[in-house]
Amino acid sequence: ETADLLILSASAVGIIFSYAQYNIIAKTTIKPQPTSESTSLRTLNAKVTEDMFEVYTAIHEGAETFLNAEYLICGIFVTCFAVMLFVMISMATTIQEGIFTTVSFVTGAVTSMIAGYIGMKVAVFSNARTTKAAAQNYGEAQYTAAFNMAFRAGSCMGFCLCSIGLLVLYILLKVFSQYFTVDEYDVMMDCISGYGLGGSCIAMFGRVGGGIYTKAADVGADLVGKCDLNIPEDDPRNPATIADNVGDNVGDVAGMSSDLFGSFAESTCAALVIAASAADMRQAGWSALLFPVTISAVGIFICLLCSFVATNIKPVRGKEQIESALKLQLILTSVLVVIAAVFLSYNLLPAEFVLKGVAQATFVATPGNVSTCVCAGTIGGLAIGLVTEYYTSHSYAPVREVAMACKNGGAATNIIYGLALGYLSAIIPVLILSGIIFTAFTLCDTYGVALAAIGMLSTLATGLTIDGYGPVCDNAGGIAEMSGMEEEVRDCTDALDAAGNTTAAIGKGFAIGSAALVSLALYGAFVVRLGVDTGVNVLEPLTFSFLLIGAMLPYWFSALTMKSVGEAAGAMVVEVKSQFMADERLILGTAPKDVVSAGRKRCIDISTKASLREMVAPSALVMFAPLAAGTFFGVYAVFGLLTGGLVSGVQLAISMSNTGGAWDNAKKFIEQKLSPDPELAKGKGTPVHQAAVVGDTVGDPLKDTSGPALNILMKLMAILSLVFADYFWSINEGRGLFNVAVAVARRV
Question: Is the pTM of this model over 0.90?
Answer without folding.
Answer: yes
